[in-house]
Specification:
The chain has helices at about 5-25, 30-50, 65-75, 80-85, 95-125, 140-155, 160-185, 190-195. By secondary structure, it is mostly helical. Helix 1 crosses helix 3 (about 65-75).
Length: about 220
């Protein structure tokens, strides 16, 4: 079993899970439909992404026990729709607009940067320092965090925020630091690190930190 299998199963079941909650609690108001459209579609898009440009880190082999544990852990992301639908949470128009805007930005960063990384490394392996990665070394993680933050906004509850914080602290940040350690083998990484943020884009960069060629190449 590969680690992507329980992940993909969770993404595949998310749309059905949310729709089932709507049926069980007979909640077909605007808020659940908005949530279904955002989170359910995200799961479908993940499967499409995995078939078109898969992430190599999810190709690692794991045991059946670890696969079950991974699926259960990811099930924590279903807390937000449960709270929203079972509690009959009502959303104001500005709040829905904020959640949708945050979600769209997350989609752009997450899937756009993953596509850039996959196709760049496929044809020219090396350090990626342009495009989505020009000011943030982990725009894909930033996008994923924004996605789940948008779901937390819709739930209007503190628990999904705590869950997102735990995933960020225990999985996202360690993976980002591990990636930095791996990229440090490239001679140009020190300069790239100075002009980019670990997660959030570094908007203001000193002249000494700028690359000699503004459109940085992939080495």
């Amino acid at each position: 079993m590969k680690i992507k299998h329980p992940i993909n199963l969770h993404k595949f079941l998310t749309f059905a899970f949310i729709l089932s909650l709507m049926v069980i609690y007979q909640n077909f108001t605007v808020a659940p439909w908005i949530y279904l459209a955002l989170h359910g579609t995200y799961g479908i898009m993940w499967l499409i992404k995995d078939s078109l440009y898969p992430d190599q880190q999810w190709e690692s082999e794991i045991s059946l026990t670890m696969g079950i544990f991974t699926f259960i852990l990811l099930g924590l992301y279903w807390v937000a729709p449960f709270i929203l639908i079972s509690g009959g949470v009502e959303l104001s128009a500005p709040l829905m607009a904020a959640a949708i805007a945050t979600n769209l930005l997350g989609i752009l960063l997450h899937y756009g940067s993953d596509a850039q990384k996959y196709f760049t490394l496929k044809y020219q392996p090396g350090l990626i320092t342009e495009g989505f990665f020009s000011r943030s070394r982990n725009p894909n993680y930033l996008g994923e965090i924004l996605l789940y933050f948008s779901f937390a906004i819709l739930s209007q509850h503190w628990l999904p925020l705590v869950i997102l914080g735990l995933f960020s602290a225990l999985i996202f940040v360690p993976n980002m630091l591990k990636k930095d350690k791996s990229l440090a083998r490239y001679q140009e990484f020190a300069a790239y690190k100075e002009r980019s943020g670990l997660l959030l884009p570094k908007l203001f960069v000193s002249k000494s930190a700028k690359p000699a060629v503004e459109t940085a190449e992939v080495n």
